[in-house]
Amino acid sequence: MPPRTCDSNSRLERLHRIFCERGAETKRSALREGDYSVWFRTPSGTGTALVRVKDGRISGGDAFIEYEGRYRLDGNNFEAVINTKRHTEGPPTWFGIDEVVIRVSGKSTGRIASGAATVDQCPGLPLDVTLMWIEDENPKRHIDYSKVELHPERLPSPGPVR
Q1: What is the pLDDT of residue 24?
Q2: Is domain 11-137 classified as CATH 3.10.450.50?
Q3: How far is the C-alpha of 51 from the C-alpha of 33, rounded, in Å?
Q4: Residues 16-31 pLDDT 10s
């Protein structure tokens, strides 16, 4: 199967610009610990993944490839080294091989982090990476049933047992 081409007017590109603009408006600018949706772009196409960033480690993956690595922060700037490995049979990767080392350097604007990357096994291949922080959903309100008044006398009486 030939690699897909990246359409410069694609919906994903427009969403990327909107996320980056909104991310630049946030007051918090350091890379946050938590879950991120990742969008990456090569000349031959784009891809997405989910990763968790915590305690200097990055882990995650997509439907076919897992990602494991480490990151380092310097103010708003970050650097990461990520190793990839196939966990499920499927289509070829954008790099043509399953196990690569990706080196990312970029800047965080709060909810959005983006940067340029290189792939050790594919010298000269340009790779853009954008991480979009996945916000926690508001937890549902806890109901304290110990404070609820119960009135068993209001329950219907059981019928005869047969």
Answers
A1: 46
A2: no
A3: 11
A4: 555 555 544 444 558 8
> How would DSSP label each residue in 87-105?
-S--SPPTTSSS--EEEEE
Give residue for tokens 């604007």.
109
Q: Is 127 helix (H, G, I), strand (E, B) or coil?
A: strand
Q: From residue 86, give the alpha-carbon distance in Å to each of 17, 19, 30, 70, 96.
A: 30, 29, 31, 18, 12
Would you state the structure tokens that stand for residue 7, as one six-digit string? 């359409």
User: How many residues does the structure list for the chain?
Assistant: 162
Examine the pLDDT at 130 and tell me if it is beyond 70: yes
User: Distance (Å, rounded) from C-alpha 14 to C-alpha 75?
Assistant: 28
CA-CA distances (angstroms) from residue 43 to 6, 21, 24, 131, 159? Answer: 7, 23, 26, 19, 74
Query: 31-70, pLDDT tens digit by residue?
Result: 888 999 999 999 888 999 999 999 999 999 999 999 999 9
Going by pLDDT thresholds of 50, 70 and 90, the confidence category of residue 79 is: very high
In the chain, beta strands by DSSP E: 34-42, 45-54, 57-61, 65-74, 77-86, 101-108, 112-119, 127-133
Say how far apart CA 92 and CA 32 lie, in whole Å.
31
Map tokens 């590109």 to a residue.
Answer: 13
- Please count the CA atoms within 13 angstroms of the CA of 109 that sit on its side-chain side: 14
